[in-house]
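Field reference: sequence -> structure
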Amino acid sequence: MSQTQIEKTLIVVKPDATARGLVGEIISRFEKRGLKPLDIRMQTVSRAKAEQFYAVHKEKPFFGELVSFISSGPTVGVILEGRDAIATVRRMIGSTKSWEAAPGTIRGDYATGLTDNAIHASDSKESFEWESKTYFS
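Structure field:
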């Protein structure tokens, strides 16, 4: 049997979901799963901060679209803590491509496109460290 560990992760409710009034519903789904919000902040991310946040994708063709979208309106960042939080959250949010996300996942239920896919979540401990530091700076 594998050992589970308590860890932290970051989610960012994107401008599309924030505009549609889904913030409470999305955070509630994580709380119902036993994940605890430790810090919550609403902000419209500046273009400079968005470029820093998505720096790992800088050489990819979709970088500009990511940056433009995340900085297009209010977002809500939440640091969550719980057992195997990173993997649990990644399973709960579903595939990045909304049309591939299973019903019952956050993206399967709320996403409407590729960048307007309702939510971002850290995919590793290293990503969490970088993204949370950047988002909450």
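Note: Helices lie at 15-19, 23-32, 47-53, 63-70, 85-93, 106-110, 125-135.
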